Every structure is written in C-alpha cells, then in structure tokens.
C-alpha cells in the first residue's frame, strides 16, 4: 500500500484554489485569502483512507513556471480548478492545463486528474454539460465535482475523491469508452475466481463466497446480503447465477457494477488481497516473501503445504483416476501466467501407463522444486493462492528449512525427508536408465522417451524402516572439467559402470579418487546392465577389489532391462545410506526379513528406546549419588553402551529364536 498521497491544485487565478484549501482545513470560508497557502499535511488518522495526505497550492503570482513544473511532476493527483461562473477558466482546462500537465509528467506514470468546478453558490445551473464531453475525451480524468468554498459544499468529498483516485485508480480497471473492464483486470479477476472456486465446478457457492468474503474483507456476508448480491446478478444477466451460485460471468459482472457505481475500492481490495499491484501484476513482495535459508540446510514442504497441494490435485483430478491428464494439468496451471511444467517433468516423476503424472509424481515434482529452487516454489504457491486458501501469513509458512547437515552428522540423526543422490558415470554407462528405472520404467518404456524431453533428475519415494522418504537422483554430466561444487554436494554418491564395457569402470575410479576419497559422503558402486555378459574391466584392480580397498559396499548389480518394473531395492538401500551415512551397514538390504533388518527395526523400536533411556537414567542416578560423574563420565557412557548391547544381544537372540 502507498505511503502517502500528494494532491496539487492548479487553475486560473481567482478561481478559488486557496479558498478551497482553507475551507477544508478551518471548516469555514475565509474572508481574506493570501495568494497561496503553504503545503499542508493531513495526518493519516483523520483521512478517510488512512494515509497521510499533502495538499499543495499554486499561485501564478508567487511561483515561477519552473516551480509549477516541479510540483506537477511530484504530484500523485492533480485537481484542475475552474470557477463555474467563469467561461474562460473552463476553456483553459483543455487548451492550457491538460496539455501542460501531459508535457510535464512521465508517459508511463499516469497522473489522475480531477476537474473541480468551484463557486457553485453563484450560479443556478450546473457546468456538467460542458464538462462531460471533456471527461469523455481524456481518460486520465478520474472524476469531476462541483463545489463551493463559500458554503462548504462538497469540499471534503473533493479531497476524498482525490485520495481515492491515487489509492484506487479506475484507469487500470476500466475503459470508459467501452464501458467495460480492461482485459488485464478481467484476467486477474478470473484467476481470483478460479483460486476461490475450491471444488472447481465453475460456480462460487455460498460456502466459497463466504470464504472469499472473509479472506478479502475479514467478515462473512450476511445470508440476506448474499441473496441480494445474487439477485442483482440474476436480474441483469441470464447466466450469472447457476445452481444458486455465482458463475465467472456473474462474478465479473458484479465487479463491473462496483466500478461503474464508483465503488472500485471494493474491486481493488479484492485484487490487492490476491497479490496484485497498481499495474495489475502480481507483486514481487507477494510472490517472494522473505525466507531465511542458512548454508548447509535444505528446503522441504511441510505437512500443511502438502495438504494444500493435495487439495489442489483433488480439485483438478476430475475423473478421479489419481493422475492428471494433459487437460487436467492445463486447468491446474490456468492460474499461472505461464505453464511451469514442461514435458521433461513426465520423465522426472512417476507417471501412469498413459504417461500422465500420478498423484505421487505430482507431489514429487513439488518436492523437487522446493529442494532445488525454493524461490520458484514460493512463486508457484503464490499463483495457487496458498496464503489465502490455507490461511497462512505467506507461502514461506509452507516451507521447512532443515537444520544444517553438519549438525545432523554430529547428532547422528536427521529429520529430513528429502535426500539427494548424485549419479556419476561415463557416457552410456547406464545413468539415465538407472534414473528412469526409479520411476518404474523398464528399458522398453524408456526407449520411447524423446531426446528433448529427457530429464537429468528423477524423484520418487522409498520406504526406510517404515518411513516414507523422497530420494532425488541427479545425473551428473560426465565431463571432468565441468564438475562443480554443486555436483559434489549430495547425501550419497552413485558411481555407475557398464559391466559389458571394459573401459567404463575407469571413469568411476577416477571420479572417486579425485573427489570422494576423503569425503564424508557415502558412495555406492552400481554395476549396470547386469543382464548383459560381464567382461573384465581394463583397470588396475577389479571393481570388487576397488570397493573393498576403499571401504565401500561391493558393487551392486543392476538392470533396467526387465519384463516388469525394474527392481526398486537398490533405491531403498541408497536412501538408507543417505539417512544413516555413518552406520556401517554390513548388509545393505532393507528387506525387513533378514537378521540385519530385524535388528535394525528392533534398535529403532519404541520399546527398546524406553528400555535404553531407563537404563541410562538408572546408571546416571547411581553415579550422581556417588558424586564422581565428571571424572568418570566417559567411562560411564562406555559402560552404559556395553550394558545396552549386552541386553540387546539377548533380546535379539530371543526374537530370532522365536521366529525360527
Ligand atoms: P485562487 O487564486 O484560485 O487561489 O483563488 P482564491 O482562493 O484567492 O479566491 C479568489 C476569490 O474568489 C476570493 O475573493 C474568494 O473569496 C472567492 N471565492 C473563492 N471560493 C469561492 C466560492 O466558493 N464562492 C464564492 N462566491 N466565492 C469564492
Ligand atoms: Mg491562490
């Protein structure tokens, strides 16, 4: 919202400019007036629109042309004053003042004008007949008003109109010649209608109208007022009301009516609430609310944002097949100024048999955007009206900034839900196949992907010990000279080689040695195309030996050349390693059946956690009584650990026995 309003009064000498200002301030007609009064400022709380207002007088006798031009360029609104009993002063409006103002203002910044006919106390007739043609000729004239400084008629109205012309200009909204709203205004109101149409049936029903009313004006409509509004539309438009709700046509008609009746501040309130500025563009402040992100942190959507996105999906999945057809997707993004998702998205997230983005894929893509480019995510949520519909301060309320990874590593646990895996490998080693297989596509289905629709990202969910986590795979372009820090920053590294190509392992070894030997990021070797006959790799040692030497898990055989969907186990392993980078996982599976998995589940089980805390507490208490806590704290911890493990070992053994 604007900080203040500057009103300038111009016109021929003696038309009553100074008197008008003095009448407003003192509420009585001054007997004697100076040529010019000093600029006055009306404090915000006594003006109707609650903004500080400066009123500036002009006098030809006291000011130079230069000073006048300066004042014109500073003004937010200019009142051209004439005296209704003085024909020359009216003629001067068009042949002197309007051209002078046009010359001295920016072409782009339109200054609204108000025609003021003063001294209405001196004549019986109105000057409107002469004034209306002028108004029709110049679109910058916002309104006209007849008043009298002498009997204080329309004085406060005059200054109210001037304020309103600045704060709620009709110019961007309405075209007086066509007697209709301007295209940009229609576009903005159409978006607002679509965002507010929560069930997407093309009608604002009573619930939606009330929600809208509360969002914009902080109060619901009385049931009678709601009926009155609909009746007005019904009377004037055949298809404005449908099934007792307002159609888009009806909604637009209603706003045209507001504007035509001089109530355009209503329309402006709605537009501003939905993020529009004076040019009917979405405000940068609205689209990009401040969000503090510290380095080493990642960005995720929180529960609230997922719920909102879920409701947006439901609203557009009209045939309820849990996927968005091209039409449904287009409809979903209709409230955007451009289509944000290109065809590559269909190869970044899970799709159904028709290649349409599924519900899960849709949420994955949002997760990806939030992770890779949170500003873009804020912008997109802004287009969808997140803050309004989810009743949040701003889109930033939907984002979780995770704690620094450094702290996660220190504490050996993480609250994060999204993990990034960078995939390295030589040309044609099978990286893309590895990414696409994560989306459930076997080699057969991958073959139909067009080159220009390829994606270097793939994101989907996996389950790690019962918790759903996102794994984001990123294929790194295999050009050694172009590897950046960003290519290295991830939670787990995949090194892919082609078992059928003797020269492909060397690249993996090279990347590993150059970048990851001393890195804390866990690495995993993928032996891709395992359906093909394996050949000996032309390298100093075998891949298995290489992994052993560098304390990596053995190479994981992988193929996407399967009849059905490729095996997903490897992705769960990767996510697990990304989540627990320090855990020396001897067995890399998460089958939930083998001994390792059973132990792991047990370790995480609540029962055991309580046993462990209780044990700690008991031992601690004993030590505190003995008062040698400080000196022996290290040994204390060591011994508690040992005790837990002794107990644990026993419990695990018993569980295993039972299963057998
Ligand atoms: P300015 O030169 O435009 O600032 O005009 P002034 O405010 O100095 O007014 C010029 C003369 O017109 C003064 O004698 C005022 O008293 C008189 N005047 C101003 N407003 C009115 C009005 O509304 N009615 C009548 N009858 N006289 C007015
Ligand atoms: Mg004067």
Notes on the protein architecture:
Belongs to the mitochondrial Rho GTPase family. This is Mitochondrial Rho GTPase. InterPro entries: EF-hand-dom_pair, EF_Hand_1_Ca_BS, EF_hand_assoc_1, EF_hand_assoc_2, EF_hand_dom, Miro, Miro-EF-hand_domain, MIRO_dom. Atypical mitochondrial nucleoside-triphosphatase (NTPase) involved in mitochondrial trafficking. Probably involved in control of anterograde transport of mitochondria and their subcellular distribution. Can hydrolyze GTP, ATP and UTP. The chain is of the alpha/beta class. The protein folds into five domains: 5-167, Rossmann fold; 177-281, EF-hand (Recoverin, domain 1), CATH 1.10.238; 291-402, Orthogonal Bundle (Recoverin, domain 1); 411-579, 3-Layer(aba) Sandwich (Rossmann fold); 591-615, no CATH class. Helices cover 44% and strands 14% of the residues. The chain is built from 26 helices and 21 strands. The chain has a six-stranded mixed beta sheet, with helices on both faces. It has a six-stranded mixed beta sheet with strand order 17-18-16-19-20-21, sandwiched between helices. A hairpin with a 2-residue loop joins strand 17 and strand 18 (467-475). The chain is elongated and about 105 Å long. The N and C termini lie far apart (72 Å). The site of guanosine-5'-diphosphate (GDP) has 16 residues, from helix 1.
């Amino acid at each position: 919202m604007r900080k203040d309003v500057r009103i300038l009064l111009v016109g021929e000498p003696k038309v009553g400019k100074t008197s008008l200002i003095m009448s407003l301030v003192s509420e009585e007609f001054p007997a004697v007036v100076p040529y010019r009064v000093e600029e006055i400022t009306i404090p915000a709380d006594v003006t109707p629109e609650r903004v500080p207002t400066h009123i500036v007088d002009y006098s030809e006798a006291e000011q130079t042309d230069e000073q006048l031009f300066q004042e014109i360029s500073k003004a937010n609104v200019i009142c051209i004053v004439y005296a209704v009993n003085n024909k020359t002063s009216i003629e001067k409006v068009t042949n002197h003042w309007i051209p002078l103002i046009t010359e001295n203002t920016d072409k782009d910044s339109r200054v609204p004008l108000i025609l003021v006919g003063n001294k209405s106390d001196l004549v019986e007739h109105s000057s409107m007949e002469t004034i209306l043609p002028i108004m029709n000729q110049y679109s910058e004239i916002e309104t006209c008003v007849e008043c009298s400084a002498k009997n204080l008629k329309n004085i406060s109205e005059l200054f109210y109109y001037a304020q309103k012309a600045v704060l709620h200009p009709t110019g961007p909204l309405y075209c007086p010649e066509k007697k209709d709203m301007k295209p940009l205004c229609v576009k903005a109101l159409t978006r607002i209608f679509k965002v507010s149409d929560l069930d997407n049936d093309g009608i604002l029903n009573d619930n939606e109208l009330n929600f809208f009313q509360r969002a914009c004006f902080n109060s619901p409509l009385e049931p009678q007022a709601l009926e009155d509004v609909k009746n007005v539309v019904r009377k004037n438009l055949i298809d404005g009301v449908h099934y007792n709700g307002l159609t888009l046509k009806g909604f637009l008609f209603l706003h045209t009516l507001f504007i035509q009746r001089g109530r355009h501040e209503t329309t402006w309130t709605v537009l501003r609430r939905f993020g529009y500025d004076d040019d009917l563009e979405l405000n940068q402040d609205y689209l990009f609310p401040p969000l503090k992100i510290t380095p080493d942190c990642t960005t995720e959507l929180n529960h609230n944002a997922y719920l909102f996105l879920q409701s947006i999906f439901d609203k557009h999945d009209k045939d309820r097949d849990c996927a968005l057809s091209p039409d449904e997707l287009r409809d979903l993004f209709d409230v955007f100024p451009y289509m944000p998702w290109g065809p590559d998205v269909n190869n970044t997230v899970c799709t159904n048999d028709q290649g349409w983005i599924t519900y899960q894929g849709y949420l994955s893509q949002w997760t990806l955007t939030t992770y890779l480019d949170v500003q873009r995510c804020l912008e997109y949520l802004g287009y969808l009206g997140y803050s309004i519909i989810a009743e949040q301060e701003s889109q930033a309320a939907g984002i979780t900034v995770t704690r620094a990874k450094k702290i996660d590593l220190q504490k050996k646990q993480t609250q994060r839900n999204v993990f990034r895996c960078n995939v390295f490998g030589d040309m044609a080693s099978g990286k893309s196949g590895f990414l696409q297989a994560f989306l459930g596509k076997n080699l057969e289905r991958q073959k139909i992907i067009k080159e220009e629709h390829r994606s270097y990202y793939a994101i989907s969910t996996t389950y790690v010990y019962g918790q759903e986590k996102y794994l984001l795979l990123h294929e790194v372009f295999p050009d050694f000279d172009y590897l950046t820090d960003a290519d290295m920053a991830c939670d787990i590294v995949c090194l892919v080689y082609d078992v059928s190509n003797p020269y492909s392992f060397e690249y993996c070894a090279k990347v590993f040695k150059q970048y990851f030997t001393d890195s804390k990021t866990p690495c995993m070797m993928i032996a891709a195309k395992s359906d093909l006959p394996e050949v000996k790799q032309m390298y100093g040692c075998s891949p298995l030996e290489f992994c052993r030497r560098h304390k990596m898990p053995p190479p994981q055989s992988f193929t996407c050349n399967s009849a059905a969907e490729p095996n997903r186990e490897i992705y769960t392993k990767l996510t697990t390693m990304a989540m627990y980078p320090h855990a020396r996982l001897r067995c890399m599976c998460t089958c939930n059946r083998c001994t390792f998995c059973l132990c792991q589940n047990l370790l995480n089980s609540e029962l055991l956690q309580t046993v462990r805390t209780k044990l700690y507490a008991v031992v601690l208490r004993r030590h505190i009584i003995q008062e040698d806590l400080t000196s022996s704290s290290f040994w204390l911890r060591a011994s508690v650990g040992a005790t837990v493990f002794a107990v644990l070992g026993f419990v695990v053994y018993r569980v295993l026995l039972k299963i057998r």
